Amino acid sequence: MIDPVQIVLLLVIIVLTILLVVLGVQVYFILKELRNTVKKANKVLDNANSITENIEEPLSAISSVVLGLKSGTFFTIAKAINSLLGKDREEKKDRD
Prior knowledge:
Layout lengths: L3 H68 L1 H23 L1
């Protein structure tokens, strides 16, 4: 027949098998959730990338305008306009 030691070992093996199956199912669900989380994080990063690309274009245009102003292009145009306006004012004064 079966000894009491063999019955205890059989019960321990059955309990451990059940626990390992439950643990395996739990690990499966955890890995499934982790996969979904990684997919969502990837979508967020893609959206952030598209947002930064959309912001980059106007900022580069503004930067080039500012660099143009710094280099004196604006001041050159302003001086030319002032000189034209100044000539018109002098001509009006001469006529009066």
